[in-house]
Write a structure and sequence with these properties.
This protein is α+β, with helices and mostly antiparallel strands. The chain is built from nine helices and eight strands. Helix 5 packs antiparallel against helix 6, helix 6 packs across helix 9 and helix 7 packs across helix 9.
């Protein structure tokens, strides 16, 4: 948390957080490690957006030097020291980095986790560290800070699990499942709606053709099989092709009914184009 603080110089260390819990943890850890050898003064300020910023400052060359030597931090070029992080504490270290400068968006809105890192050297090291645990991160510059960010939901889950936030991982997975089910339901609903529209439009075209034939050459001019299909459609506008086929005197398949409607459509089209009577035998 100290390594990723907002300011680290030979004379001053400044740690800031918008989280009271994180601020209290920093103070507790700081006192537990350094006791009376160094102190961190708390300042609270309210921003324009209403959030409270908690700032802990340690000043004085002697106190700062002790802290920097304890964690082998160079104020000139801050780097993650691999020798000071043994394998079984890497997750705890990453958790400290997240508490110091990390944030994660509401997964219901967007999959996004980021670290607002104060120096480029630290951003490079952090990106490499995340890569070591299989998390693909990228870095951009935003308002003078190096933003190391993760977009893929699986990588965000891996990062949260690695730093010990397993409950957050479960919540993110639940949101993903909910969004996936909702999206599938929407696709099914849209598909059903499109199919209904398609059936209705086809039925309206069929009725229009049949009525044209009835007004011009008369349905009695049609063959018995075409006349029966035409009359069924006129009296049952919401019937599906399969239902019409099942209702015929001699039931036929859906494709058979569709074939008869195509024949009716050809008769209607000939009437429109030629304006002459057409007898179907």
């Amino acid at each position: 948390m100290i390594l990723f603080s907002r300011v680290v110089s030979k004379e001053r260390i400044c740690f800031q957080s918008e989280s009271r819990i994180t601020a209290e943890l920093y103070e507790k850890l700081f006192q537990g490690v350094f006791g009376n050898a160094a102190s961190a003064q708390l300042h609270e300020s309210t921003r324009k957006n209403g959030t409270v910023l908690y700032t802990y400052e340690t000043e004085g060359a002697a106190a700062v030097e002790k802290i920097l030597k304890t964690y082998r931090i160079s104020p000139e070029v801050r780097r993650i020291d691999p020798d000071i992080i043994v394998n079984n504490s890497l997750g705890v270290f990453a958790a400290g980095v997240f508490l110091a400068c990390g944030s994660v968006n509401d997964p219901a809105k967007e999959y996004h986790l980021e670290f607002a890192v104060p120096e480029q050297s630290l951003a490079m090291d952090l990106e490499a560290l995340l890569g070591d645990i299989g998390v693909h991160a990228k870095t951009v510059i935003r308002r003078g800070q190096y933003i190391v960010y993760v977009k893929e939901s699986e990588s965000i889950e891996d990062t949260l699990t690695f730093i010990g936030a397993s409950q957050c991982t479960l919540e993110l997975m639940n949101v993903k499942i909910f969004k996936d089910v909702r999206n599938k339901a929407n696709r099914i609903a849209n598909c059903d709606s499109a199919n209904i529209d398609k059936v209705v439009n086809a039925a309206m075209r069929q009725i229009e053709d049949i009525r044209l034939i009835s007004r011009t050459i008369g349905l009695e001019s049609l063959s018995e099989e075409l006349r029966e299909v035409a009359e069924l459609r006129l009296s049952n506008t919401d019937m599906s092709l399969q239902e019409i086929g099942d209702s015929l005197t001699n039931p036929i398949s859906r494709s058979g009914v569709n074939h008869r409607f195509r024949r009716l459509a050809k008769i209607a089209e000939k009437i429109r184009s030629e304006g002459v009577k057409h007898n179907e035998s």
